[in-house]
């Protein structure tokens, strides 16, 4: 017994270790797939998930192709798992209307990863519930037609800088990547409108604003960390939040102090002398009244957040919209000629550029832009989170579920858009728009939380094409990639740029 007693300790220790390991492995196995029965319980079809990562590999090519594939394989209501998180994907107009409009009070917020930091978290894009309502309503006046009209000279100035750079390509007839030129141009517009800073980023690539923009967009989560975060969100998200963020903090500090300096300088100026840009529009909309009793609707951090909004919501999307429009016009010379005729007539009839005439007198340019955004909507997916359990058109949606609108699948559905792969601006005549089924065209999202900068975005795209096509024609060349390859890890954009030639007019 003594001998047995001596041996019993190490044996039972081993047993305990083995038992614990076995329990751990069983629990891990259970955990690895336990999140993956929810879609099935809801009766929503989806690709088969892998343990821990769910359907992560389904998206290896990007979300654009994956959305089209989901629509093709599983219909307009499907789902997937990113790690443990469940997404319900919709591309059915009536269901979309239910989410964006009819049941808005239950679907007020987008999802957030929990890893975002200031100034991004202060922007209206990421705010939630009551604070979102307050900031959105305070900001709305920053996008009024009067404010947009005042921004036209500033956007036009950046357009002139772009044209000056492009002249050498027009003179030499050399093929070049116009997307790169648009990147510099949109950086200049963001600097000018949102940060009160005039610059020529192509000429000054080392300017701190340009450098900090690069750093702002260079942040990405390493793939291995992303997999861990998706697989073990409740542990990894708080841990990841604790990681030092020196680089990001430097960038945030740069933008915040730039806004602080510009704002302080403006406070010294009389109202009428202040630069009429988007930053000033935000500052104006953040105040109730002038004078010592002025009430701030937005905190200083929130003002920086809304200025950064232009960087987050406008920069890449506008660059890509311009690149796509240029590609489509170059590859469809017949439509380009029709557009040139309209623009020439416009220049003949209007001396200066006014918001009202740009809105009313360029119907074909509008049609071209709208059809570009149908074929290639840069913001092709957006989400809403269910606050409470509900039922939409007979489909049960549990609280916390994330609904993702698949704009690309909707815009390429032959039921709503015959021959969806064909570029045809005629789809957007006034008559065609009047009889279109609602919620089949959503490049700017929809409902009370739709794009707040839609008119500003359209104005920028319109002005740029107007200036560009007054001086040049777009032409394809042997380097033009036809059909255009796409990338869609974040916004939808051309994968390898857009190589074209421009010729003087
Ligand atoms: C062609 C240009 C643009 C396109 C295609 C576009 C598209 C979108 C889309 C699809 C959304 C999501 C809407 C939803 O969830 O229903 C959005 C949100 C938003 N966009 Fe734009 N956008 C553009 C330009 C801009 C610009 C220039 C700004 C501002 C400077 C801007 C500001 C916003 C804001 C603030 C939101 C969030 C609104 C909220 O949460 O209340 N956008 N945009």
TrEMBL record:
Quaternary data: Monomer.
SUPFAM superfamilies in alphabetical order: Cytochrome P450
Membrane-topology descriptor: Multi-pass membrane protein
Position of the signal peptide: none
Taxon lineage: Eukaryota, Metazoa, Chordata, Craniata, Vertebrata
Organism: Erinaceus europaeus (Western European hedgehog)
CC cofactor: heme
InterPro entries, per database record: Cyt_P450, Cyt_P450_CS, Cyt_P450_E_grp-I, Cyt_P450_sf, Cytochrome_P450_3A
Protein localization: Endoplasmic reticulum membrane
NAD in keyword set: no
EC numbers, comma separated: 4.2.1.152, 5.3.99.5
Key words of the record: Endoplasmic reticulum, Fatty acid biosynthesis, Fatty acid metabolism, Heme, Iron, Isomerase, Lipid biosynthesis, Lipid metabolism, Lyase, Membrane, Metal-binding, Monooxygenase, Oxidoreductase, Prostaglandin biosynthesis, Prostaglandin metabolism, Transmembrane, Transmembrane helix
Catalytic activity: (15S)-hydroperoxy-(5Z,8Z,11Z,13E)-eicosatetraenoate + AH2 = (15S)-hydroxy-(5Z,8Z,11Z,13E)-eicosatetraenoate + A + H2O; prostaglandin H2 = (12S)-hydroxy-(5Z,8E,10E)-heptadecatrienoate + malonaldehyde; a hydroperoxyeicosatetraenoate = an oxoeicosatetraenoate + H2O; prostaglandin H2 = thromboxane A2
Functional summary from the UniProt entry: Catalyzes the conversion of prostaglandin H2 (PGH2) to thromboxane A2 (TXA2), a potent inducer of blood vessel constriction and platelet aggregation. Also cleaves PGH2 to 12-hydroxy-heptadecatrienoicacid (12-HHT) and malondialdehyde, which is known to act as a mediator of DNA damage. 12-HHT and malondialdehyde are formed stoichiometrically in the same amounts as TXA2. Additionally, displays dehydratase activity, toward (15S)-hydroperoxy-(5Z,8Z,11Z,13E)-eicosatetraenoate (15(S)-HPETE) producing 15-KETE and 15-HETE.
Similarity field: Belongs to the cytochrome P450 family.
Name of the protein: Thromboxane-A synthase
């Amino acid at each position: 017994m003594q001998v047995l007693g001596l041996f019993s300790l190490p044996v039972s220790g081993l047993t305990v270790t083995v038992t614990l390991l076995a329990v751990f492995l069983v629990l891990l196995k259970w955990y690895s797939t336990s999140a993956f029965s929810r879609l099935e319980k809801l009766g929503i079809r989806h690709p088969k998930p892998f343990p821990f990562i769910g359907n992560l590999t389904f998206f290896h090519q990007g979300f654009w192709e994956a959305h089209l594939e989901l629509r093709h394989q599983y219909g307009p209501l499907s789902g997937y798992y990113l790690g443990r998180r469940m997404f319900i994907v919709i591309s059915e107009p009536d269901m979309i209307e239910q989410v964006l409009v009819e049941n808005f009070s239950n679907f007020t917020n987008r999802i957030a990863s929990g890893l975002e930091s200031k100034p991004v978290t202060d922007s209206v894009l990421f705010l939630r519930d009551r604070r979102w309502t307050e900031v959105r309503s305070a900001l709305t006046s920053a996008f009024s037609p009067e404010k947009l009209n005042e921004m036209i000279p500033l956007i036009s100035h950046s357009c002139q800088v772009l044209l000056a750079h492009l002249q050498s390509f027009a003179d030499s007839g050399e093929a070049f990547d116009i997307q790169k030129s648009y990147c510099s141009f949109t950086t200049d517009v963001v600097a000018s409108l949102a940060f009160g800073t005039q610059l020529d980023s192509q000429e000054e690539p080392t300017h701190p604003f340009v450098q900090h923009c690069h750093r702002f967009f260079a942040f990405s989560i390493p793939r291995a960390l992303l997999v861990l975060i998706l697989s073990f969100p409740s542990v990894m998200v708080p841990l990841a939040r604790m990681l030092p963020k020196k680089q990001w903090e430097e960038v945030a500090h740069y933008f915040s102090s730039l806004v602080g300096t510009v704002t302080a300088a403006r406070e010294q100026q009389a109202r009428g002398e202040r630069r009429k840009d988007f930053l000033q529009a935000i500052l104006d909309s953040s105040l109730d009244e002038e004078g010592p009793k002025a009430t701030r609707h937005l905190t200083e951090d929130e003002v920086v957040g809304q200025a950064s909004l232009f960087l987050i919501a406008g920069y890449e999307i506008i660059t890509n919209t311009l690149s796509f429009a240029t590609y489509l016009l170059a590859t469809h010379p017949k439509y380009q000629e029709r557009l040139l005729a309209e623009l020439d007539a416009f220049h003949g009839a209007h001396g200066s550029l006014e918001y009202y005439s740009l809105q009313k007198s360029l119907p074909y340019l509008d049609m071209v832009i709208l059809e570009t955004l149908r074929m290639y909507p840069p913001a092709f997916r957006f989400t809403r989170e269910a606050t409470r359990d509900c039922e939409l058109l007979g489909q049960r949606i549990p609280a916390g579920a994330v609904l993702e609108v698949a704009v690309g699948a909707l815009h390429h559905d032959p039921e709503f858009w015959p021959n969806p792969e064909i570029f045809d601006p005629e789809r957007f005549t006034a008559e065609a728009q009047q009889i279109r089924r609602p919620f089949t065209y959503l490049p700017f999202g929809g409902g009370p939380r739709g794009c707040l900068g839609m008119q500003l975005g359209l104005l920028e795209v319109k002005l740029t094409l107007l200036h560009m096509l007054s001086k040049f024609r777009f032409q394809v060349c042997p380097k033009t990639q036809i059909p255009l390859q796409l990338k869609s890890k974040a916004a939808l954009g051309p994968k390898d740029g857009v190589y074209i030639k421009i010729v003087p007019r």
